[in-house]
Amino acid sequence: METITDTDKTVRVDLDESSVRDLNQFLHHDLAASGVKHIEVLNPNGRHNIAVGVDAPVSVDIRGHAGYFIGGMNKQARITVHGNVGWSVGENIMSGSIRVKGNASECAGASGHGGLVVIEGDASSRCGISMKGCDIVVGGSVGHMSAFMAQLGTLVVCGDADAGLGDSLYEAVIYVRGTIKGLGADAREEPMGEEDYARVAALLDKAGFDHDPKAFKRVASARTLYHWNADHHQEY
Amino acid sequence: MCGIVGLLLKNAALNENLGRFVTPMLVSMAERGPDSAGLAVFTDRDLGEKYSLFAQDAQFDWDALERVLDEALVPTPRIEAKGRYARLSLDVEPDTLRRWMAEHFPHLHVLSAGHFMDIYKDAGHPAEIAGRYDFPALTGSHAVGHTRMATESAITPAHAHPFTAGEDFCLVHNGSLSNPYKIRRRLERKGIRFETDNDTEAACRFLEWRLREGDGLETALAEGFSVLDGFYTLLMATRDELALVRDSFACKPAVVAETDDYVAIGSEYRALAHLPGVKEASLFEPRPEEIYTWRR
Asked: This protein's superkingdom (chain A) (predicted)?
């Protein structure tokens, strides 16, 4: 990739000059040998798949608004988007962290197994859908059907949650500071315990938000959908 | 998939640049819809009754049509042709023209009618279509475009979006409707005729029928929420307005950028990334079943 300039183990990639494929091939194949610790991505301009599949303890700064699947499948890397992102940021994140300084579109942190996704602004619908162990902290509000079928991990919402929150939840837990427009099937509000306060405080601290954990409500699964009940006649 | 784009210029000084702004928006959405594309362009002044025509035959003789119209229908028609497309200006009611065309030139498709709107649509890659009809040179106050990845009806110029009904009204759609035939049967009983078997045409003719019956755009769309079943992001234009809605699941994307100069709508942000001042624009994602309208 000709446009990469190596200065103090930082490389800068301008996506108006290089392709996303060039960038990702560098991240997948050449990063380890290069000794580079910091990658700066310029002119993302809504392009998709930037910095997917990174598996190295590096930091990536994406300067501008980015498209779909940013930082998908991330392992170890610390990715920051200085702008908004489209659908499915941090999809299937395994470890490391992804921070979006602006807003995120749908399905932020979808299916994430581990690591931390931080959205400083709002996240749109289906935030944390099917999450499997990652943590997601949203500074603003989340859209409808967030944490749909979420299996494990924690979703912390500092603003409000739209309708259908936690529909068909498994063992993931949701904490909401603002108002909840409506809970989905089998999701219920539960009392906060000391463990919950500690869990929220730790995640707020990691994400860099200064809120009182006492202001959060806990939403978890009522576990009535865990077993098939013929008497329900498909109505839950 | 499918891509939708829309641009309404609030600053009339930019009208000369409409085509230059909207063409890259459309072409950037080619990956969402590579099989056909279309663009509706509106002027901010009444140019009299005009029609967008599309010929099945690439060698169609537009001069001959002009002569026949002059002799048989009304004097002094004016035709400006670009290949298979032509804009016909003449002072005759749409119903009369459509009947006359169906009888005398059944292979000519009347794409649209109105005093403010021209429609260009064709099958092929969006970049080729934009070049074929010189989209960058188009001027006007607002435009609505679509790139299609067909999931139900055939790939032909007639099945491409935007769809129109009545005059100076058009609609583009990303998604799929599950009850287009039910809507269609309901409208056909009222004497409304369809030109294709495309699901979007049902939504377009339903909404235009409501507008013609006296509903405002917002009332018509509110009724649309209960009548249209399926997935949709719909973007509509009238002579002076753009309207945008998403279904209750909102699983078909849209992003809106608004500045003092324009309102721009795209399926994805990358459709808007080249617009001047977009980095400082107010950017938002439209909410499910909320009606957004902008007036020029």
From this structure: Bacteria
Asked if B206 contacts B224 with a C-beta cutoff of 8 angstroms, the reply is: yes
pLDDT band at A231 (very low <50, low <70, confident <90, very high): confident
In terms of CA atoms, which chain A residue is nearest residue B288?
A: A144
**Region of residue A72 (phi > 0: left; psi between -120 and 50: alpha; otherwise: beta):** beta
Provide φ and ψ at B95, rounded to 5°.
Answer: -60, -45
Are B140 and B42 a contacting pair, CB within 8 Å?
Answer: yes
- Distance of alpha carbon B90 from alpha carbon B69, whole angstroms: 9
Interchain pair A144, B283: CB under 8 A: no
C-alpha B265/C-alpha B272 separation (Å) is: 7
Q: Averaged over B261-284, what is the pLDDT?
A: 95
| A217-221 and A173-176 strand pairing | antiparallel
* Distance in angstroms (rounded) separating the CA atoms of residues A143 and B287: 8
Which residues on A lie below 8 Å from B268 (Cβ)?
A: 46, 67-68, 86
pLDDT in tens, B15-59: 999 999 999 999 999 999 999 999 999 999 999 999 999 999 989
* Claim to verify: residue B32 and residue B105 sit in the same structural domain: no
Evaluate whether B59 touches B81 at the Cβ level (below 8 Å): no
pLDDT digits (tens, 9 = 90+) for A110-166: 999 999 999 999 999 999 999 999 999 999 999 999 999 999 999 999 999 999 999
Give a three-class secondary structure readout of A152-193: EEEEEECCCECCCECCCCCCCEEEECCCECCECCCEEEECCC
In terms of CA atoms, which chain A residue is nearest residue B284? A103
State the CATH number of the domain containing residue A222.
2.160.20.60
Give the domain extent around A174. 5-232
Q: What is the pLDDT of residue A171?
A: 97
Confirm if A172 and A191 have CB atoms less than 8 A apart: no
Mean pLDDT of chain B, nearest integer = 95
Q: How far is A11 from chain B (nearest CA, A)?
A: 24
Q: Using CB atoms, which residue from B270, B279, B288 is nearest to A67? A: B270
In this structure, the answer to whether residues B186 and B80 fall within a common structural domain is: no
